[in-house]
Amino acid sequence: MRIGVSLPDNLLNRFDEIITKRGYSSRSEGIRDAIRNYIVEYEWMGEEEGEKVAVITITYNHNQRGLTDTLLDIQHNSIGLLGTSLHVHLDHDNCIEILLARGNIREIKQITEEIMSLKGVKHVKLTTTSKTLD
């Protein structure tokens, strides 16, 4: 099936560099592989249940109107689930926020997906581990 996708120039240029370095024969091959990896990661996240410790890493444009306030609201509304946060200014326009979460993984995933959907958020990564290492 053919689809059309609109991408900003800088994202497409970076993608082209990566597929060339990795030896893909075409953009389509690279996109198929990226989609497969996305599906595997999503399904892996979907299989987890119970109490976990997690790190949510967020890269975003701090100039996006209202985004910083929304991220703070999410954190304040998640007291007891989200603990420590680390904020680093990457450059004039971009920041990285690292949130430590502890609790029910379904609730942590819900927060993560809420953050992913915000305009101005460039990348979100959820990393989990068991709450106790038995």
UniProtKB/TrEMBL annotation:
Membrane-spanning intervals of the chain: none
UniProt: Ni(2+) binding residues: 76, 87, 89, 95
GO biological process, one term: response to nickel cation
Gene3D superfamilies with a match to the protein in the record: ACT-like. Chain A, domain 2, Met repressor-like
Cofactor note: Binds 1 nickel ion per subunit.
Domain Transcription factor NikR nickel binding C-terminal: 53-129
Cofactor: Ni(2+)
Keyword Transcription regulation: yes
Entry similarity comment: Belongs to the transcriptional regulatory CopG/NikR family.
Function: Transcriptional regulator.
PANTHER family xrefs: NICKEL-RESPONSIVE REGULATOR (PTHR34719:SF2)
Protein name: Putative nickel-responsive regulator
The organism of origin for this protein: Candidatus Syntropharchaeum caldarium
Taxonomic classification: Archaea, Methanobacteriati, Methanobacteriota, Stenosarchaea group, Methanomicrobia
